[in-house]
UniProtKB/TrEMBL annotation:
CDD domains: 7tmA_OR51-like (cd15222). Its main location: membrane. Belongs to the G-protein coupled receptor 1 family. It is a multi-pass membrane protein. The lineage of its organism: Eukaryota, Metazoa, Chordata, Craniata, Vertebrata. This is Olfactory receptor. Keywords: Cell membrane, G-protein coupled receptor, Membrane, Olfaction, Receptor, Sensory transduction, Transducer, Transmembrane, Transmembrane helix. The gene is LOC115286579.
Length: 314
């Protein structure tokens, strides 16, 4: 049995948590988790493939959708090894450096997804409120620049946060609440002052996901105002229909993220199972649901996917 009373001068090792109270059933519980990972990886992989191979989908809206699928795929793969390692081999131990690396990818892809949802909202705003200038505003070069800006933004936000975490000393029990490394969870185990880390972490969340959510909300206020000026009810319904997929993607991304943040900040006395379930929903539901939503709600994606399947069958 590993000792959790390590000296702060020894290399720090953390111990991840599976499903508290259900350790004896981890092998069985791995089955639904494997199914979710398979759906997320195959679904997002399929979206990326059809957008890259189908020339009819080489438009700004679908380029942004491919960015969303890429971030969902990255988010999913960031936790795959540790999650299934716990369920199959009870491999709970993770080194501090490996934990830092996993946090970089988890939080990095999270910030990137928030940015992608923002540019997708901008895409809908231009398409509905200024359709005549859509092609001249969202050119290929600007889309490429937006993609690089999203990556740079996420990286610049994370590097200082993780460097601040590396300066901390850990002398408490090194058991984390989740099956992956999550910044607030790791920070709580420090025996040194974490006020700077907490303040900087909060500032980053507000300046990325917080600002993005406000701008997304503002874009939809402007979209609704523009749509309400359309005389025909049928046209209104048609225009709103083009936004349903994106609104669903925004909801399934921000609601679990806000829930997890609230649990970490105010749910100190909540059962460990609550922490674990919300953490798994936060990381797995968006990658699983986004391909399903866009395949069902977006006619062009659905047709492209069916075309590929039918060609394989023939």
């Amino acid at each position: 049995m590993p000792s959790f009373n390590q000296s702060i001068f020894q290399p720090t090792v953390f111990f991840l948590t599976g499903i508290p109270g259900f350790e004896t059933y981890h092998a069985w519980l791995s089955i639904p988790f494997c199914c979710l990972y398979a759906i997320a990886i195959s679904g997002n992989g399929m979206i990326l493939f059809v957008i890259l191979t189908e020339s009819s989908l080489h438009e700004p809206m679908y380029y942004f959708l491919s960015m969303l699928s890429f971030t969902d795929l990255g988010l999913c793969l960031s936790t795959l090894v540790t999650m299934l390692g716990i369920f199959w081999f009870n491999a709970r131990e993770i080194s501090f450096d490996a934990c830092i690396g996993q946090m970089f990818f988890i939080h990095g892809f999270t910030f990137m997804e928030s940015s992608v949802l923002l540019v997708m909202a901008f895409d809908r705003f231009i398409a509905i409120c200024n359709p005549l200038r859509y092609a001249t505003i969202l050119t290929n070069s600007r889309i490429i620049k937006a993609g690089f800006a999203i990556i740079i933004r996420g990286t610049l936000a994370l590097v200082p946060l993780l460097l601040l975490l590396k300066r901390l000393s850990f002398c408490r029990g090194h058991v984390l609440h989740h099956s992956y490394c999550f910044h607030p969870d790791v920070m709580k185990l420090s025996c040194t002052d974490t006020k700077i880390n907490s303040a900087f972490g909060l500032a980053i969340v507000i300046s990325t996901a917080g600002l993005d959510s406000i701008l997304i909300l503002l874009s939809y206020v402007l979209i609704i105002h523009s749509v309400l000026n359309i005389a025909s009810p049928e046209e209104r319904k048609k225009v709103f229909g083009t936004c349903v997929s994106h609104i669903s993607a925004v909801a399934i991304f921000y609601i679990p993220m806000i829930s997890l943040s609230l649990v970490h900040r105010f749910g100190k006395h909540a059962p460990p199972l609550v922490h674990t379930l919300i953490a798994n929903v936060y990381l797995l539901i968006p990658p699983v649901m986004n391909p399903i939503i866009y395949s069902v709600k977006t006619k062009q994606i659905r047709k492209a996917v069916l075309k590929i399947f039918l060609s394989k069958l023939i």
